Every structure is written in structure tokens, then in C-alpha cells.
Amino acid sequence: MDIISLLKTFGYLGVWTALFCEGAFIFGIFLPGDSLLFPIGILAGQDVFNLWIMLPGCFVAAFLGNLAGYEIGKRWGPKILEKTKGKLIKQDHVDKCTDFFAKYGPFTVVIARFIHFARTLVPFMAGMTGMNYKAFVIYSAIGALAWAVGIPLAGYLVGSLIPEGNIDKIILPLIAAIIVAAALPKIIRWIFSKISEKRKESSR
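RE: above sequence
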């Protein structure tokens, strides 16, 4: 099944469910996020989806997902973290989220929207650490607007410029480019960590 047929099959409800789950549940760390929103916008630009139906649903799903993630973290955070540590949740990810909170404060909730693992962990950790709920709600709304509305809009602008009939040739390379761009920082960090380890070993 090609990507267009797949997204058509998922439809509005499938997209919204994925966005909600990514913020609400720990297993959401495996969901596509950015690589889903941009193609959806492209397809809206090709009149496959109605943008003005899709966007409000994306915003609501992303926003409510964050609120659910906060409640789960508040009620069951420590137990879930203990059971999943090293499996679904890596300590490195937890440390980075903690650093984000220390450095950026509540604005971390907005920044996290654009970082793959943080989209899932930050709402969970905000609830677990008792972040002020009113501030969390406000920054979650801002983040959902910037991410779940902004990225599809960017895709829509691209999609409206693609000549009709050429979408199949363009959408897959675009999705691949998004995935590579998201993974690139992690790959670079891994390379530098290996170089650092080798230097330490050679200096002994």
C-alpha cells in the first residue's frame, strides 16, 4: 500500500488518535509525529483532506494528549518509570528532559513538541514532578498550536505548489528527508561519543 492510500485509510480519526497517543502514553514514543503531520498538510494541499477540518482536530488531539500525559505522570509516574527504565524509557532521555526543565522552565513544554522523544516524556515528567498545572495547560496550548497546526500548514503550502499528479514522486522523498533530519542530531552525538571514547582509550 502506498503512503497516500495508507494516510487515506487512517483518515482524520487515525491521525488525531496518533497525535493524542504520542503525548498521552509511554508507547507514543514510537509514533511518527513530525513525519505524519507534514505529509498530511501536503495531502491537504492536494485536496485529499480538508485542511480546516484536519487542523482543529490536530490541535485538540495534541493538546488533550499532553493533558492526559500529565495526569498519568502525576498519578503513576514513579511506578511506570521504574518498570520501563532501560526498555521504553532510556535514562539518557529522562536526563535530557530534566535538563530542559532546568534550562527553559515551563517553555520546555513548547520546545518538547519539536523533539521526538520529548513529546512523550515531557508531559509525563511535568505531571510526575508536580509542575504548576495552569502553566502546563497554557504552554501545552501554545506548543500544540505551533506544532500540530504549524507543521501541517507548512506541508499545505508545499502541497499546493506541487503539480497535480506528481504527489507520489515527491511525498516519499520529503518524508525520508524529514526522518533523516530528525535522526541527524542523534547520529552526530553518537559519532562524537565514539570519537571521545576512542580518545580516552588512546590517552591511557
